[in-house]
């Protein structure tokens, strides 16, 4: 059982440097292509945009914003059996544009632990700020731990 006293347990900061080529690869994959240019039949639109004008799709922020949640899932203090762990839900609020060269720092905190129908749940709230201290992304990540059989 996850100890409710772990509410408030903090993770991070985890640092992430946003790269233009990585943003382009991410956009290419979302469009049904492959990372890199070797397999592209036509140049995806993201390849023709100057780096300073690139803005990634909203889901790009998962690349950095998930790290505190992932660390919490592996935290021995929570004592989770990862084979019984399921993704519950997540919500992400994008507050500022992410640009190539941004240095993002993400912190997280366990904000709730509860039980229902024999399952355990916990939620981690994450905050990601850029190098200027601007809040870029707020996230809530909830996991479900199935009962042991």
Secondary structure blueprint with pairings:
Elements: E1 10-17, H1 20-30, H2 45-48, H3 62-65, H4 67-74, E2 85-94, E3 103-116, E4 119-129, E5 135-145
Antiparallel strand pairs: 1-3, 2-5, 3-4, 4-5
Explain this structure:
- The protein has helices at about 20-30, 45-50, 60-65, 65-75; strands at about 10-15, 85-95, 105-115, 120-130, 135-145.
- It starts with 9 loop residues before the first strand and ends with a strand.
- The chain has a five-stranded antiparallel β-sheet.
- The chain has two domains: about 5-20 and about 55-145, Hotdog Thioesterase (Thiol Ester Dehydrase, Chain A); about 20-55, no CATH class.
- The radius of gyration is 18 Å and the shape is elongated.
- The longest helix has 11 residues, at about 20-30.
- The protein has four helices and five strands, in the order E-H-H-H-H-E-E-E-E.
- It is α+β, with helices and mostly antiparallel strands.
Salient structural properties:
single chain, alpha+beta, Thiol Ester Dehydrase, Chain A, 4 helices, elongated
In a few lines, what is going on in this structure?
The longest helix is centred in the first third of the chain and has 11 residues, at 20-30. The protein contains 4 helices and 5 strands.
What is the share of helical residues? 10-25%
Number of helices: 4
Beta strand count: 5
Largest sheet: 5 strands, antiparallel
């Amino acid at each position: 059982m996850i100890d409710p006293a772990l509410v408030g347990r903090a993770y991070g900061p985890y640092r992430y440097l946003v790269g233009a080529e990585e943003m382009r690869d991410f956009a290419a994959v979302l469009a049904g292509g492959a990372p890199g240019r070797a397999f592209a039949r036509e140049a995806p639109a993201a390849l023709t945009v100057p780096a300073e004008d690139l803005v990634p799709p909203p889901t790009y922020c998962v690349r950095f914003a998930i790290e505190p949640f992932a660390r919490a899932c592996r935290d021995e203090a929570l004592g989770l059996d990862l084979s019984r762990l399921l993704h519950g839900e997540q919500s992400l609020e994008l507050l500022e544009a992410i640009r190539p060269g941004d240095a993002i720092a993400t912190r997280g905190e366990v904000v709730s632990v509860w039980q229902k129908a024999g399952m355990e749940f916990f939620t981690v709230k994450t905050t990601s700020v850029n190098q200027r201290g601007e809040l870029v992304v707020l996230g809530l990540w909830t996991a479900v731990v199935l009962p042991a059989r």
